[in-house]
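stuck on this chain:
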Amino acid sequence: MLVTIVGSGLSGATAAVMALRAGHEVEVFETRSHIGGNCYDSDFMGTRVHNYGAHIFHTNDEEVWKFLNQFTSFNSYTHEVKGEISSGDIIPVPFNDVAAELVGEQSEEWIVDHIFRAYTLKQWGVDYDQLSGGVTKRNGLKKRRREGRDCRYFTDKYQGIPVNGYTAMIEAMFEGARVHLNADKDAWKRHKGGLVIYTGPVDSFYDYGLGRLKYRSLKWKHTYGPGLDTAVLNHCHMGKDSTRVVDHARFHPETLKHPQKYRVTSEEWAEDYDPKLNLPIYPVPFKEDQDLYTKYRQLVLAESDTVFLGRLATYKYLDMWMAVKQVIQKMSHYFV
């Protein structure tokens, strides 16, 4: 059977592995000039840069961890985030005993107001109180006060970043598949096989027949200069319109030998998705958009030869490990 995969990100790559191992032909169609989707990374001024924003792999799921370790080795990086609050103080996020030593013990209301509220408004375009449960859980926003001095943002058992980068990992996952880059958005329709795996925006699949779903996008400014003393610095106040700054070199501690050496940092802004200007990166499953997706979901359930996978196609804010797990679970009965 010919399996047609629309999109070359992590979901598409996971599906490709399963299809190829089951003896199927795989043809992949990607509108961008590279594989990897938003996980794509590349060399810039001697630093491996996450071109579409920081991607930190973490999971407690042993099946997912073992699956990806077939295609890469992960380094020992564990994610730490600091936040610059309105007073100018820089504290760990989530708020913990270390933060309390810097700015005093604070109430839950203070923590929400000084760490999460402005950041949420800039990132999502909605007030903190309007966030859906999936987003708050994914971002650790429910962990408003963490006991102890552990400054890791994620406390999962398995953490790290591919030593050779995500692009190399996904390239290994597509080995044996025919990959078409710079494809027009409908190219897959002219070549589709017996099964289609679609990872793009679900409303685009149906030509926006029920209306457009809302997505958030990002933009970046890459700078070569002094690095940070943390991998990610969130701007938790409205004094800066950007959401954060990322120091890419810190994602690879095995190569970071000179902490003050000039390297690449990326300042990041969030904005609404506009198909003429940017890329859809995050679904916004709040209120009326979730209701609209529910209508699209009824169309999806009626499909017999197409499987929808990934953040955009299932309109869920999935972590990387969740995306891999979703594919494994959904495709296991197709590819025995």
Summary: The longest strand covers residues 215-225. The mean pLDDT is 93.
